[in-house]
Amino acid sequence: MISINFSADVRRVARDLKYIKNITVPEVFANAANKALAGVRTKTVRELSAAKSINQKGIRQRTKIKKAFLRNGKQSLTAEFKIGYDRMPVAVTGTPVQTRKGTRVGRRSIVGAFIAPRGKKRVGVWLRAPGAGRLPIIEQKIDLEPEARMFSKRNMDTHASDLFMKEWRRILSYKLKKARV
Asked: Lower CB count within 10 Å: N or C terminus of the chain?
């Protein structure tokens, strides 16, 4: 699990904009940080999906954004983006289809595998342990670790600050125009 934070001391900017009563700088910061992390999440999910040939929904379910907020006097000016690196079941990548040779899931073909229920709502793709009889069976999973770490770190280093500044300017100019009217 990787966690990346946006946090800042917004007192200096608030002091510069104190003549405008309607603008709350922490609110602008929170909105910009949340939008920037949403953009980073989208870009990371797209890149990882293309690299691993997994549908984006399955990867997006493994990410979490903790948003910065302002509510009823409470404020948290920290926004976090987390992505889980644990292994992902093959059945999540698409609909498994049983074939004569094994199982096909999306673009993957697993020779000797079979489809079996995994709990009440999900199915899994299973493979017998080599050299064993009927049991044990092992669920087939995909490792996300090296690519997910690389894409998320690269996007946070390059894309996040640019996106944050773009959103900061956009939201602040909107608030300033709204305050003048």
From this structure: C
Cis peptide before 146 (omega within 30 of 0): no
pLDDT at 103 over 90: yes
Q: What is the mean pLDDT of residues 82-104?
A: 89
Instruction: Report which DSSP code applies to 92.
Output: G
State the residue for tokens 């949340």: 34
Three-state DSSP class for residue 181:
coil
The DSSP string of 119-165 is: TTTEEEEEEEPTT-SS--EEE-EE--HHHHHHHHHHHHHHHHHHHHH
Place of tokens 């001391």: 9
Question: How far is Cα 158 from Cα 154, in angstroms, rounded to an integer?
Answer: 6
> pTM for this structure?
0.75
Q: pLDDT grade, residue 77 (50/70/90)?
A: confident
Does 81 have pLDDT greater than 70?
yes
